[in-house]
Amino acid sequence: MKNITAVMIIVLLSGCFEEPDGVGQSRAVQGTASDWLVPVGQVFDGGPGKDGIPALENPEMVASSDSKTDFIREEAFVVGIKIGNKTKAYAHAILDWHEIANDQIDDVLYAITYCPLTGSAVAWNRKINNRETTFGVSGLLYNSNLIPYDRLTDSNWSQMRQESINGSLIGQVPENVQIVETRWSTWKQMYPNTVVTSENTGHNRNYLVYPYGSYRSDDNVIFPVDNLDSRLNLKERVLGVNIDDDSKVYRFQNFSPRLVLCDSVSGRPILVVGDQQDGFIVAFHSDDIVSSKFPFTGIDNGSEVVMQDNTGNQYNLFGEVISGQGSDLEAVSDSYIAYWFAWAAFHDNTEIFTSQN
């Protein structure tokens, strides 16, 4: 792979993340094949060791208007969460260096997990079997993707597979907490009272610098993955939707201008709303919607409204009705944005949505 040496040198100098012994060679991983749900030979030790990348615990948050947010570029991406009327945003610029943020809003405990190598973010409930825990960075990778571990049982979890793959909780599926990825400018326009991660993390990092050099835009994949699918650019960001082991991806280019699509995955009707310029795509179940009488249209009026149905109900990015008498929409829990190569590695034979569908 071209330029891989340069990429690895940048990674090493950053002091942030993985340096494999060599591409295709794994350092020793504890356990035998029977101890893992995935092939143990495909679990790679990234280099820094367990907790070598420090997860954040209740990170400091500041108002969106605070000067301490100046390190976040307007067009940069954040991971947004909304519980009730409270919103928080976690900047990629912070997550690139820490990957996990253990936090809460009111009584909802969650862990934001973000993998810079696969461009994927999900959030999990931090209560496992009714016991509170936090998640840390194991230093291990599967399909180039983050493997968090829970500090309650020391079990290892695959972020994109969304399942415990090693330890006493093997096979257990986490409870998802809904998040949205979008641009910082979009998020704070929709939610001007939001708070966002500050640079005061307690760790000495330069959050103005992306620690992986040209990785976001080049065609290098540092660690081996299954099913390297070349149908799309490997680093293209897509929304993947998985229902009953059938999956489909949606490209940002399908959503210019803002658009709501009626589609189906595994025979289940879904709504997908996206906006290429504002940098979001989200998917909702829509079992009651008949595609021939499609009732939703995209709305872009500078508020948190993103779509409206044919009875006048208006909805936000989280599927909540914010004007009208309709019912909130249910988000597709196994759907998130990731680099195309990563989604394809975890989902063989995934379908690519086209406007002709």
Provide a quick synopsis of the model.
The chain has 357 residues and is mainly beta.
List keywords for this structure.
five-stranded mixed beta sheet, disordered N terminus, four-stranded mixed beta sheet, 357 residues
Can you describe what's shown?
It is a single chain. The chain has 357 residues and is mainly beta. The longest helix has 11 residues, at 4-14. It has 4 helices and 27 strands. The protein is globular, with a radius of gyration of 20 Å. A 5-stranded mixed sheet has the order 3-16-5-4-15. The protein has a 4-stranded mixed sheet with strand order 2-6-7-8.
Q: Strand-residue fraction?
A: 35-45%
- Main beta sheet strand tally, sense and closure: 5 strands, mixed
- The rough form would be described as globular
The percent of residues in helical segments reads under 10%
Classify the oligomer. single chain
In terms of structural class, how would the helical and strand content be classed?
A: mainly beta
Radius of gyration: 20 Å
Low-confidence stretches: 1-26
Tell me how many strands there are.
27
Average pLDDT level: 91
What strand order characterises the main sheet? Answer: 3-16-5-4-15
Distance between the termini: 35 Å
Alpha plus pi helix count:
4
